[in-house]
Write a structure and sequence with these properties.
With 225 residues, this protein is α/β, with parallel strands linked by helices. 28% of the residues lie in helices and 27% in strands. Bound molecules: cytidine-5'-monophosphate (C5P).
């Protein structure tokens, strides 16, 4: 038998940015690299889970043993997440765009002498909050939060507002900004109903393993071996 701690579990992970189209060649995006989410998917697979990774546009290889679904926009991501349910654990690491353009031009927009084009925005669905409120709510629902100030307090508020079980808060302030967004290291606080655990700054791959160890422990609290 497979004794790995997450054997038999389905873990759903989102990662990367989303691209919100403006016209056939232009989009709105953000600086998320997808590294932390991919590391978490890899760590979950290592721990024996069946893993579905819903990935925005990133230049990363699929981790071994992971089922990957590529998407572009937030709405596509929401649909792929929905289609991947049910899941025992969902970890929403993606930096989902808050807004999309309300209308997508069918043809490449042209420079006009008559003035500038105006982009009208519309709000994207909140995938994490939607999962929390949905009928197939995963047993353990984990969000990520990138914060530049009041990191822990904002994460606590976010945990309650979105009805997530845990929020992993990343400090992306000041000089850390370079290293966290796009870099290979992370500094995280894990905010749960029980309290806050602050981890050392460590490689994203290690943070992923540390998080999966806590997930496994949470799912089987009596399994002390
Ligand atoms: O509100 P904020 O974007 O900081 O929340 C971060 C958490 O919510 C992350 O886990 C992110 O993946 C998730 N989220 C989402 N859908 C959105 C916005 C955020 O799933 N539209």
């Amino acid at each position: 038998p497979d004794h790995r701690p997450l054997y038999g579990r389905h873990v759903l992970v989102t990662a990367g940015p989303t691209h919100e189209p403006i016209d056939p060649v232009r989009y709105i995006a953000n600086r998320s690299s997808g590294k932390q989410g991919f590391a978490i998917a890899a760590a979950a697979a290592e721990a024996g889970a069946r893993v579905t990774l819903v990935a925005g546009p990133v230049a990363l290889e699929t981790p071994h043993g992971v089922d990957r679904i590529d998407v572009e926009s937030a709405r596509e991501m929401a649909e792929a997440v929905d289609g991947a349910l049910p899941a025992d654990v969902a970890i929403m690491v993606a930096a989902v765009a808050d807004w999309r353009t309300r209308d997508v031009a069918g043809q490449k927009m042209k420079k006009a002498r008559s003035g500038l084009p105006e982009l009208v925005l519309a709000e994207n669905p909140d995938i994490l909050a939607g999962l929390a409120a949905g009928e197939a709510r995963p047993g353990l629902l984990i969000g990520f939060a990138a914060e530049t100030e009041n990191v822990v307090d904002n994460a606590k508020a976010k945990r309650e507002r979105k009805d997530a079980d845990w929020i992993v808060a990343n400090d992306v302030s000041g000089e850390r900004q370079d290293s966290v967004m796009g870099g290979d290291h992370n500094l995280a606080h894990i905010v749960t109903a029980a309290g806050v655990e602050t981890l050392d700054r460590m490689p994203k791959t290690e943070l992923a393993r540390a998080l999966m160890a806590r997930v496994a422990q949470h799912l089987e609290p009596d399994d002390s071996e």
